[in-house]
Amino acid sequence: MHCPDQPGIIAVITEFINTNGGNILYLDQYVDRENGVFYMRVEWDLENFVIPADKIEEYFNTLYASRYNVTYRLSFTDRPRRMALFVSKMSHCLYDILARYVAGEWDVEIPVIISNHPDLKSVADQFNIPYEVIPVTRQNKEEMEALEFEILDRYQIDFIVLARYMQVLSENFINRYPNRIINIHHSFLPAFVGAKPYHAAHDRGVKLIGATSHYVTTELDAGPIIEQDIVRITHKDTINDLVKKGRDLEKIVLSRAVEKHIQRKILTYNNKTVVFS
Amino acid sequence: MHCPDQPGIIAVITEFINTNGGNILYLDQYVDRENGVFYMRVEWDLENFVIPADKIEEYFNTLYASRYNVTYRLSFTDRPRRMALFVSKMSHCLYDILARYVAGEWDVEIPVIISNHPDLKSVADQFNIPYEVIPVTRQNKEEMEALEFEILDRYQIDFIVLARYMQVLSENFINRYPNRIINIHHSFLPAFVGAKPYHAAHDRGVKLIGATSHYVTTELDAGPIIEQDIVRITHKDTINDLVKKGRDLEKIVLSRAVEKHIQRKILTYNNKTVVFS
Amino acid sequence: MHCPDQPGIIAVITEFINTNGGNILYLDQYVDRENGVFYMRVEWDLENFVIPADKIEEYFNTLYASRYNVTYRLSFTDRPRRMALFVSKMSHCLYDILARYVAGEWDVEIPVIISNHPDLKSVADQFNIPYEVIPVTRQNKEEMEALEFEILDRYQIDFIVLARYMQVLSENFINRYPNRIINIHHSFLPAFVGAKPYHAAHDRGVKLIGATSHYVTTELDAGPIIEQDIVRITHKDTINDLVKKGRDLEKIVLSRAVEKHIQRKILTYNNKTVVFS
Amino acid sequence: MHCPDQPGIIAVITEFINTNGGNILYLDQYVDRENGVFYMRVEWDLENFVIPADKIEEYFNTLYASRYNVTYRLSFTDRPRRMALFVSKMSHCLYDILARYVAGEWDVEIPVIISNHPDLKSVADQFNIPYEVIPVTRQNKEEMEALEFEILDRYQIDFIVLARYMQVLSENFINRYPNRIINIHHSFLPAFVGAKPYHAAHDRGVKLIGATSHYVTTELDAGPIIEQDIVRITHKDTINDLVKKGRDLEKIVLSRAVEKHIQRKILTYNNKTVVFS
């Protein structure tokens, strides 16, 4: 939740939960004093909570939300969210995500993998996940995305992870999944926006390369940043070395971002993220 | 403050402040669910607070502390704390701290520098800070520390920073300043406890060297860790290179720890620290 | 190669290659001036080299090795080395290695996976690699290791990677593969040697956790360190959080070490490694 | 030195030194195979070298430089280089450099500090270094830079360090000191070129901030990068926090770059640097 900062707001919300029999399992809050905004993430046990799960929104709206001008999202941890993976030809992010998935690291379902190329079908097969090839190009994008929407709806997908997917999504697609499409870009944004960032980094002679995971918005590589990291390089590293070192960075940075999203620990505001610990 | 975790504790404390006219400027809390301990740091403006500053402890004790079994420390930011620096012969940490001090980075007073050697008097002179040489050795420690206590009392010192001070303090000394003596050890503790950690690191062939800032307790290099960091080394680095790379690490790690202490953002519990952001 | 440092040694070796028609593709050298040792790794193209591949050792020995007291290892990149993986129950390092393997990142063969538990057979099956269960215990170690030797010989294994293998190898086993068994230990060695390092790290209240990849020697966790890295933690992290953060560290650190080994870029001397870039 | 890569070049150069009685103290080389360029830095003892110091250039030119098309720079370590510091109002980089200077960490002379503001005269006084105030503005730049040239010549300055100097130098100034003006920019270039990078970083919501030290060229913030580093930030950090965290980064990154320059370990080529270890 976030709302205008106001005295006692934290007490109001925690009292609401405690008084009604909820046991708080997690609470993290943060006040942006510059802009006067209060952010909080709170998680509680419903076992003895007197308000039925399907009435919480109604009660909270009536009693608090409009009064304190609260924007919030309520979610229940008993239903894992459903994630679709979009890939092209590179397997490192895909394997990293699927290895965590089958090891049970994440509370998520991955019912489908979508690709514009057939190359990674063998990986999907290894993990027994349906793999849909939608050969989207600049020319046929509208038509192909319609096919993708059909697949995403059929599998009841909640959010999408672009695991080195090498196609730009249309505005229409992006607006269908606001703050629900996670991309990995292989540079420390805002440096090296767009295509071939490792080439650009090599040309510029930087001493660090980076990777950035962000929510996709209609402006290319300009959405809210979730996570970034870098690795040190030297003059000895060729472009191939950057690509190689970058792979480890990309997969770890993307997986950290996806995990935070799955844990519902990311709050987006003003094209930035609040990432709770 | 810390206390046994209990439903509503955060509401109780924030209500106490809000109801009595306090404007909360900072709040950070954390629950150690494993041990059932609630930790919180809260800072508020006294301007319209109805309880007089010198009565806050009394009121808080009566109304809350014993009832909720709260251990707390109350401090007022209008009186800067007074810090003594202990040094030997190396100047890098000393300069780093004094440069921040004269630039006004920290809300602290440094009325005196104490050393077992005369070498760094010129640095103290540059900054017009009294420099007391107390040539302590293993043999004369009790007597020399008595002199130090006299100096520390005369200057009304609140806490002590050992800025690469190469003498072990007595138990008596340490017990006089519990959680108020900050040391920098030039290894990533608990590796390489004791003397000559860079030599030991070189012998072992590690690929990282570290520095650790901690509160001093009576067990050598075993007090609560406040901050640590590392720097990468290679087989090419000689012991001298480690010493050189280590200097930058030591001064930054020590200064980060000192800053957190000055900001009263460190809470010590079970020989560990909670460091608020 | 390494040898006592002596004037002109670099010229001697490079002349040997150039004069005989070899085209140098890679050269890195380093002089340990403290101990007077010269280390070099040089790679050249055999296409126009006048000495036949199977005679290079003989010629080099006769002409240079004894004269300059050179210890060296000659290897040919046209035969990929053969690596056996030893695992127990955790899959993160295994997946990370196999994902690189099938993506063709490494010039290596992985003909067999050996485990003391059946748990990860499904992973081996995904990648169509034979999985041998050898239920070794303290009691039956000699007998079980004999079975392992038979398997390792049958598959002509050159080196072994312990990818979170939770059994201590016997001296006999270790001596059979000097500098050819790579382990990952989940701490920044020499801190937290032995079992349960994350528990020990949590107890000590460190602010960083680490992982160390090293060659296995007969002294536990004391072999030559190949690669280390760390990740920052806070007081908020439970032991489970450390385990989770550690997994990403372990797999990356282990894979970096394995890659250097595959590339024949590690030279071991005095229980330390020289790792060429 | 750098030259087109060619078989035997390393043997040729090392033979030249060895044959003539030079004892090599340091050698590092690197081949850019993409562009076919050989880079080397070699340092030797002149004690028994048969060619007189003032004839080395002549002999090397005649015998090797034109034949192998070598571009090189010869320097003698017995004459420390002379560095001028340019500062404005912030003291952190200045103190960091001067603390190293008086501790004898660097083989350099700092005969003068130049500023466009009087603010830091007290720091210069602490270290007994002349402090010249040249109140340069956009309008009077030509005239004021003429004064600066006079000072720089008078003090026989070899290179210039802009230690958070907040004025853009003219083309004329820059061309007078090619690859001899070192700047620190408070972002990970090429992100956030120009003024107020911390504000821009805060607006963009990045999760890392950086600092970059580079040689100044006539294109703003686009010169060869010598060193970069980053520090992690979170949504909790205000612009002031970024400024504060950035200070530690800036001073360390600048000092690392200055040290490499003093050690003559930086070679510039194609607007990039080769930084020898």
The CATH architecture term of the largest domain in chain A is 3-Layer(aba) Sandwich
- Report the principal-axis shape of chain A: globular
How is the biggest beta sheet of chain A arranged? 7 strands, mixed
What would you call the quaternary organization? homotetramer
What's the pLDDT, averaged over the residues of chain A?
96
Radius of gyration of chain A, in Å, reads: 21 Å
The count of β-strands of chain A is 12
Task: Detail the topology: elements first, then pairings.
Four copies of one chain form a homotetramer.
Chain A: E1 2-4, H1 9-19, E2 23-32, E3 37-45, H2 56-68, E4 81-87, H3 92-102, E5 108-115, H4 121-126, E6 131-133, H5 141-154, E7 159-162, H6 171-176, E8 181-185, H7 197-204, E9 208-215, E10 225-232, H8 239-262, E11 266-269, E12 272-275
Parallel strand pairs in A: 4-5, 4-7, 5-6, 7-8
Antiparallel strand pairs in A: 1-3, 2-3, 8-9, 9-10, 11-12
